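Supplementary Methods S3. Input chains for the assembly prediction are listed below.
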Amino acid sequence: MPSEATPPFDLTDFGCPSLSGAATEQFSIQGVAPRVVLLPTTEEEVAAALKAASARQLTLAPYGGGTLQEIGYPPEVLDIVLSTRGLNRIITYEPADLTISVQAGCTLAQISAALAAHGQMLPFDAAGTDRATIGGLVAANLTGPRRFGTGSYRDLLIGVVIAYADGTVAKAGGQVVKNVSGYDLMKLHLGALGTLGVLLRLNFKVLTQRPVDITTVITGPLNALLSLAATLATSQLSLDSIELLGPSSLRDEATDWRLAERITGSQAGAQRKLTDLHRLADSHGCRTTTLGATEAQELWQDCASFISPGTASNEGVLIRISVQPSGLSNLVSTVTSLAHSNNLDCSVVAHAGDGTLFARLAGSDLTAAFRPLWESLTQGHANALILAAPGNLKGEVNLWGQLPSGFDLMRRIKAEFDPHRLLNRGRFIGHL
Amino acid sequence: MLQVRGLLSTMVLEESKSVHNDLISQLQNIVGADSVVSHPAELLVYEYDASLDRHLPAAVVLPQTTQQVVEIVKLANRFDLPVVPRGSGTGLSGGAIAIKGGIVIVTTRMNHILSIDYANRRATVQPGVINADLTHYTEHAGFFYAPDPSSQKVCTIGGNVAENSGGPHCLSYGATTNHILDLELVLPTGDVIHTSGADGDQHGLDLTGTVVGSEGTFGIATEVTVRLTPLPEDTQVLLAIFRSVDEASNTVSAIIGAGIIPAALEMMDGLCCQAIEAAYHAGYPPDAGAVLLVELDGLREAVEELVDQVSTICRNHGAGEVRRARSAAERAALWAGRKGALGALGRLAPNYYIQDGVVPRTKLPETLQFVEQVSRDIRLPIANVFHAGDGNLHPNILFDRQDPTNIERTLRGGLEILRFCVEKGGVVSGEHGIGLEKREHIAFLYTTEDLAVMARLRDCFNPRQLFNPDKIFPPLRGCGEVRDQRVAARLAKEGIYAV
Amino acid sequence: MAIVTAPTAKAMGFTEIDAPPRSIIDRCVQCGFCLPTCPTYQLTFSEASSPRGRIHLLRAVSDGRLDLRAAVVREQMYQCLNCRACEAVCPSGVQYGQLVEPARAQIEQAHPRPLWQRMFRTFIFVRVFGDMRMFRLASGAIALYQHSGLRTLVRRTGMLKLLGLDKQDALLPEVPLRFVIPSGQRWQPQGSPHHHVGLFTGCIMSTAFAPTDEATARVLARNGCEVVAVPDQGCCGALALHAGEAGTGRENAKRNIVAFERLELDAIIVNAAGCGAALKEYRHLFHGDPEWSRRAERFSASVRDVSEFLDTLDLVPPGRLDRVVTYQEPCHLAHAQRITAAPRRLLAKIPGVRLVEMEESSLCCGSAGIYNVIRPEFSRRLLERKLKNALQTGADTIISANPGCIMQVASGLREQGKRVRVLHIVDLLDEAYRSV
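Predicted structure tokens for the full assembly:
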């Protein structure tokens, strides 16, 4: 659907369909509209576009479904949005090998449907799976509740094809489940927010759907729930998820602290897990309820939505703080009490097994109230990230908290692969 | 590759003796005299690892602290000398061979477990801690360290990090990279960083994941935080006995195709069974065509179901017998046999050349048929012992390095097998690394552009290519070893003769 | 192998006769599995101090790349305890022990010691250990020194410290005043004998440990054996062999073979692990001598360690002993003879005895023949490690099965003032039978 508006610069050598003018608005990133949107449909077109952009030093942002574009700083300059939605082919899928190779613009829903036809799956918890592309999900590496037990992008990504800023296309990894041939470049691009290259193709090892998939919700005093979570996390039950849900965090508006578990396995295996779970919950003075299938699906969908920035910046701030699991108890009380003392509404969800806490904060004077809270939270090199915040706030704080000791190295890597800072300029840690 | 490389380092030794003496005395200032090896005769034992390549370093140093490592690295920068990190020297791709001479940093004396934190399922260790010791010290509390390379009683965690080591249990538990939370890394510049956030998770780029498996070219880890895993409630081991490799490999495809991922799924062919049985008396049938060793673990109820399912699949695919280990001792014996298999091959021939190719699991049967064909073509026996569940082959070509025609045929056989793996959508190394041994083969898999990107990443960490030079990437041809008669004369005085 | 050219004439290699066999060297594929089992590697974490490193040095000498006389070769061949823990774990089946002894012999040949040292070694290995009369005389002198009050006097004067002999003095076991002199004496079982066995009385065992020899005979007799102390036997020769004195070792072997051949025996019972290992390997001493190889083979085939032998019997139930024991495995029982389960099964058969396993029970205690004399520093560190592991079990008795280990561990305990006993396993069994 090429636009009729006059493009701001000559697009002939970009060699793919494009949009310009008002049509670019829908591809705005944190309020910044690109001058041009490119709509390539082949990997070659992406490479050619990058080469052309690089030759003219035009800044560029890869763009999938747009579900996670709130993450990171606003782009410093944005000439081109490169939509990957045209790269939507499943390249190979060999169910008996339990591997799949897909283009970056495939949506998670599309991939899941293909896998489900063979009783297989990728355990990625994401919001808006019919829009969210696999390339965008990997670039954001925003991991959900199932990371604890079944693994996430990092554990299942076995190969990539990447287009670098200068248009070079290179692959790494492969189509097999075990591989140490060359460097693990999959990790390099994981969570790099597309600042080092544009993902073209991704290979995953996939999992088999388990016959039984049960969700339980445990209620009780917060301390008991946290202690129970610690017991479960170090137990032999290998639960898929152990999720702490704060009061009023989900759409069901429940006002208690809750601990939600996802249990999968064979009939006998899952039943045994359930029995043990009940016993352990009882011994912690907590009550266990098993959810129906629909309720369960809603609950996990809500969790995924809670931790996704979506359009959160309109409503407040979404932060993620990771601590060692034993520090979660302190973290929960610190965050809630800091929010309280700064007159902010606060709701939290946490991957209790991993020690990752998500908090949504809102209030009348958000910017002023949030800054001191963030400063106290990020003291001492805490691993913290603001996933979504109003634009004015983003200009005033470090979204990643204090910079890690490896930041110089990260800067060198950015300089090597994107020396002119063309890809997602300024959006990643330390405004890379 | 199979040749013994020149005895003489092209580095400092070629310079004047005084430069060498200066280096040694400065190294001694850093770590003390008894932690520096400089006498050429004593350096001989650092010219090898468990691979086939050899080369002498100019000096070997055995530090005990991060600070010492930093100072050694800075010194190497001043002397413009290569640095090669080394653990126990059990690598199978030549990763610890000082192919350009220089300083070998041996981590075996950095062998303290610094902290164990069960609540957070992690431990922080120095790089010289032995893999199996971690499990030994944590299993009483109900935990273990999951990656279990066959050399786990010997190999170091630091070496595992460098190679992203695998092992039988990687099938369900993942390789080393899935179990490393954070590294304290001394960069080739001498700077020290932590690769993860304080919680052991990615903060910014995933440097931890990027560094694991970089084969000592990105720096040297001086502290490693690993994930500990709760021990499974129940573990059962099955030994399924087949008439042929074909039957066994079809069974592997069937098990995986049924969506069952056992804790481990290993195959050994008849030749291997014979060698293992001679060495271990573990109960491997020496007259089998092939066996599968299947470990199933988890909750008791689930394991029982799996045992039934797997046994049935094995029988349906031709297993004449499926034995179940009846006790922990029987299980341990079977595993000891499996893990000692490589060494046991020493009973069949003076040398073996192990390949580490991986193919998609559905391609196993045809790949193993091809291996048999190669064995016939090169007229050398090939013993297969490998991680079948991952599609990670270990064909071992048995040969005698004293026989030059043997070497040519061995190399040709290895090459053909790896080419075949790549043609079938596989890769050239599943867990041993590229190192020296497969640096030419990596070009089957990756284009010049692919490799150039990897080289650029290396240069970000290791801009002067001081750390583990000449590894991983295909060598520039025609760059033969330079030898210097003056050095030869000097070494002769010490009782070593350049040959 | 393109770069390797012919060896230079200047590097002295092995002389052909009795060289460490190349076929054994070539079996090592350098997998490194031996490293964690090697006591010296555990102390140094240095590759040269590992079996793999030492084999590589021998390979280099054999290839003509390294001179046999190089300091590192001598250092490493003698730093090695020859405990053979590496052999027990080697997947390739490298018989490391068959490399060390020839290598030492070659070093002794290639690098003659000063005349006084050679004379002293000859005196010790040929005159003392080679001749049981001399040995008993020397042992008697020690016993006299200990029992007459002379030791108290000498210790008080401090002259041992002055002479640097105080450590050696501390290592000396309490030598009893009564020795077992093998002269055909017999121990009869109650009722008709089921087995006719010969007792290998040994040198140190028959003197310093004479009561253990007697206990061995009593325990065997109690279990239906007619035991005879075969006359004309002598030292097994292990000490000479370990020290690179192959000729002397061979003479010892021949004498013992001749002595035991004269009798029809079901088994030759030995209660010292080190001697047992040597006796079982006599055949290696006679390569190229078919006559003696055959005789040695037959001799070795009937040698049994006392634990190994008792384990095959339907043991008469011993009496009750309330003890907490831990088991220190002699290297030459666990590694050289691969006997690990039998002693533990025997201990389990004594009512009231509770075995608490120590960490690293099969790691050498540092005794290793005369190692504790020639390498006191390494020996001491291994001993300290052994004592720490043993004492951690809370055992009141440490059980072993070799005189060297018993002396070593006992001296360490004495030094630390610990009231823990060290006993040979047959001493404990004997005590149990006597308590019935």
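Chain C has a mean pLDDT of 90. Chains C and A do not touch (no CB pair under 8 Å).
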